[in-house]
């Protein structure tokens, strides 16, 4: 039996002839010869060595191709990140639109709220604080606006960890939809708020429902690798920047328009914000896909909510108690950065 193996490189080729005699002895004859082009030609009868050799080459090429494809795919931004970006942008446009309207809204309620309503009662408290610090009367609207803004932010601070805990148990999408429906409901209350008390209630509902922001970051963490997570978080920052640029401009246009209006003029901007919120709900309902599979969800609601309290307790928050498996030196550096960022936001929010 004769098996022929002919292989070549750039300079030379070797012709190998295997001969098997009748008594079972095998001999090999090596005959080098020249070649004129680079070529590989393998001719075997059906032997195990042929099959193994071809399998090894095929497996090696397959692994190399798979590794290259995986490396390329891991650097791509997940489509869900862009869905989160659009959802946040719609939400922030509606949220920031009301900021330039606050002085006009407070002037409206100062003239139209009931003498026994919430506005006169709160005004007396503000005047007491005004006399205590020696602030002029013209700053009353600033103090009112500060009260409403602080109340909204405090409710968001309390609600966000609880929303995160609920999403760990029930999934991201249903909790996200509940938050967005709550935000839309707050704009409905705003459109109906003929009294200052109802307007404050609208802000309370909006603050409690504002956990969608932190939930969006959790979604990005779900679908991003370490290599692409920074890019996803950057898109969250871009959504905030665009929202805080365009939203107040829209609100300023409504504020300018309101000076020539009488009656409940605030209904128009409230309905505009409601349209944005309902668009956000429909967009998430249709386009957003669940990012936390059932097998990865927390099993205990009580345990998940108990863990969320570490984000609400101020002493635990500043100590970063919720951060686990980190070196002491890294934790100390994280605490310093957290405190510096807190001071920065404290001053920035006051100036804003």
Automatic annotation (TrEMBL):
Molecular function per GO: transmembrane transporter activity
GO cellular component, one term: brush border membrane
Region Disordered, annotated ranges: 56-75
Signal sequence, renumbered to the chain: none
Biased composition (Low complexity): 58-74
Positions of transmembrane segments: 81-102, 142-163, 175-192, 198-221, 233-254, 266-288
Location(s) in or outside the cell: Membrane
InterPro entries the record matches: MFS, MFS_dom, MFS_trans_sf
Membrane topology: Multi-pass membrane protein
Ranges where the Major facilitator superfamily (MFS) profile domain occurs: 80-352
Keywords: Membrane, Transmembrane, Transmembrane helix, Transport
PANTHER family on file: MAJOR FACILITATOR SUPERFAMILY DOMAIN-CONTAINING PROTEIN 10 (PTHR23504:SF31)
Record protein name field: Major facilitator superfamily (MFS) profile domain-containing protein
Taxonomic classification: Eukaryota, Metazoa, Ecdysozoa, Arthropoda, Hexapoda
């Amino acid at each position: 039996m004769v098996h022929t193996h002919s292989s070549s490189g750039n300079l030379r080729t070797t012709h190998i002839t295997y001969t098997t005699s009748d008594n079972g002895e095998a001999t090999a004859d090596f005959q080098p010869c020249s070649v004129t082009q680079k070529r590989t030609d393998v001719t075997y009868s059906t032997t195990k060595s042929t099959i193994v050799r071809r399998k090894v080459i095929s497996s090696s090429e397959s692994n190399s191709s798979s590794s290259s494809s995986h490396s390329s795919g891991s650097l791509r931004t997940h489509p869900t990140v862009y869905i989160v970006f659009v959802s946040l942008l719609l939400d922030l446009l509606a949220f920031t639109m009301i900021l330039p309207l606050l002085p006009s809204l407070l002037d409206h309620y100062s003239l139209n709220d009931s003498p026994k309503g919430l506005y006169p009662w709160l005004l007396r408290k503000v005047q007491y604080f005004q006399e205590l610090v020696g602030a002029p009367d013209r700053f009353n609207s600033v103090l009112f606006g500060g009260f409403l803004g602080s109340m909204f932010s405090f409710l968001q601070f309390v609600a966000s960890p609880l929303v995160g805990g609920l999403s760990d148990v029930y999934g991201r999408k249903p909790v996200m939809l509940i938050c967005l429906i709550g935000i839309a409901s707050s704009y409905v209350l705003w459109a109906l708020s003929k009294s200052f008390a109802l307007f404050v209630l609208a802000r309370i509902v909006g603050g409690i429902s504002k956990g969608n922001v932190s939930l969006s970051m959790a979604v990005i963490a779900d679908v991003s690798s370490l290599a692409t997570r920074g890019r996803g978080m950057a898109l969250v920052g871009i959504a905030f920047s665009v929202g805080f640029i365009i939203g107040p401009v829209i609100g300023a246009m409504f504020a300018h328009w309101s000076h020539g209006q009488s009656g409940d003029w605030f209904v128009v901007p409230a309905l505009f914000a409601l349209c944005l919120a309902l668009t956000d709900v429909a967009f998430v309902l249709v386009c957003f896909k669940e990012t936390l599979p059932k097998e990865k969800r927390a099993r205990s609601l009580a345990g998940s909510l108990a863990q969320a309290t570490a984000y609400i307790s101020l002493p635990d928050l500043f100590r970063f108690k919720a951060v686990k498996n980190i070196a002491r030196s890294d934790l100390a550096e994280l605490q310093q950065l957290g405190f510096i960022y807190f001071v920065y936001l404290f001053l920035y929010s006051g100036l804003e």
